[in-house]
TrEMBL record:
Any Pfam family the entry gives: Thiolase_N
InterPro entries named among the record's database cross-references: Thiolase (IPR002155), Thiolase-like (IPR016039), Thiolase_C (IPR020617), Thiolase_CS (IPR020613), Thiolase_N (IPR020616)
Coiled coil: none
Protein name, per record: Acetyl-CoA acetyltransferase
PROSITE patterns: THIOLASE_2
Species per Swiss-Prot/TrEMBL record: Cupriavidus necator (Alcaligenes eutrophus)
């Protein structure tokens, strides 16, 4: 099978909800990274085969096929198409998978994959249309088939995060310590300039991520739970809502030669698996096992892992089950500190993973994340530079 290569990856800074990027239209935020990526690489814009963007809840400013709209808002050629993917939180990781699969199949040679989410303007999940509050959304609750299979069991991320914490015997104190470390790592990475090469500043608005903060265990302990039924789950141990975009350039070997490009990484493996939708957030565990088995690797072959910190309990359970060292997981902080811009998170994590492999000299990096419906993508890349 043909190989798929990553030539470049960029992301916007992450703006906190109602923060510096709040007034930026979703198409313009997506266009920001698209324009930067195209201008940095020696491929004529009209020779891109496709633009695949992840986005969750494509309503309001994010409606109307945001991949295509963002490409056009960037001033790019009319002839290049775009399509938008929604695999919930894994949307832009799936966009990268689709781009790689198109290249591996030989049907396309140059694909821009990424994602965008403006959570300041579209802050909650699609079941907001049913008037439900954040996290407690079940847009399919009236489905006869669903109810026949799952009854009235809650499809609720906070319920799932609490259930995971209870099942894996993870205390609130332990999760708060984990969250504090996420902020510490993120602030350290920002201070050291580790994100400088991957972040494209938005002039006059935001130069660098603004979501990480110098919290304390005392402050975290003072926060009330998101709901009395879930006493361990507070905003401190949950990912923060934010605004961001990211994009990854995926090309074929023929395109490398045609345009004189140097590949930075090779897609070594990609897969997606699913688990119980009521548990909702546990699929990264089984998906990681499946991915390693499929490609004949062991976890100790992996130098770095990026796993989305939707909630502290999700990552902590994954660490307990896999035995992978926390010291090599989310080394520059995770979504608790750096934000989880839903449809952009997959490409955002891939961008950080690529740059950190280059900075640290690691060879293999693995990315995974929990996704709505009890799903999880896994991508393994091999650094080539």
């Amino acid at each position: 099978m043909a190989e798929a290569y990553i030539v470049d990856a960029l992301r916007s800074p992450t703006g906190k909800r109602r923060g510096s990027l709040a007034a930026m239209h979703g198409a313009d935020l997506g266009a920001h990274v698209i324009k930067a990526l195209v201008e940095r690489n020696a491929i004529p814009a009209d020779e891109y085969d496709d633009v695949i963007f992840g986005c969750v809840d494509t309503i309001g400013a994010l409606a109307g096929d945001i991949a295509r709209t963002a490409w056009l808002a960037a001033g790019m050629p009319l002839t290049v198409p775009g399509t938008t993917v929604d695999r919930q939180c894994g949307s832009s990781q799936q966009a990268i998978h689709f781009a790689a699969q198109a290249v591996m199949s030989g049907t396309q040679g140059v694909v821009l994959a990424g994602g965008v989410q403006t959570m300041s303007s579209i802050p909650i999940s699609s079941a907001m249309l049913a008037g439900q509050p954040l996290g407690f959304t079940t847009p399919f609750a009236e489905s006869r088939g669903w109810r026949a299979r799952f009854g009235d069991a809650p499809v609720n991320q906070f319920y799932a995060a609490q259930r995971i914490a209870d099942h894996w015997s993870i205390s609130r104190d332990e999760m708060e310590a984990f969250a504090l470390e996420s902020h510490r790592r993120a602030l350290h990475a920002i201070a050291e300039g580790r994100f400088a090469r991957e972040v494209v500043a938005v002039p006059g608005m935001l130069d660098m991520d603004e979501t990480a903060r110098a919290s304390t265990l005392e402050k975290m302990a003072s926060l009330a739970p998101v709901d009395p039924d879930y006493p361990k789950i507070t905003p401190a141990v949950s990912s923060s809502t934010c605004d961001a975009s990211a994009a990854v350039l995926v090309v074929s070997e023929a395109a490398l030669k045609r345009y004189g490009l140097t590949p930075r990484a090779r897609i070594h493996h990609l897969s997606v698996r699913a688990d119980d939708p009521i548990w909702h957030l546990t699929a990264p565990i089984s998906a990681t096992e499946h991915a390693l088995k499929r490609c004949g690797m062991r976890l100790h072959d992996i130098d770095l892992v990026e796993i989305n910190e939707a909630f502290a309990s999700v990552v902590m359970a994954w660490l307990k089950e896999t035995g992978y060292p926390h010291e090599r997981t989310n080394v520059n902080g995770g979504a608790i500190a750096l934000g989880h811009p839903l449809g952009a998170s997959g490409a955002k994590l891939m961008t950080t993973l690529l740059h950190e492999l280059e900075r640290s000299g690691g060879r293999f990096g693995l990315q995974t994340m929990c996704e709505g419906g009890g799903q999880a993508n896994v991508t393994i890349i091999e650094r080539l530079l």
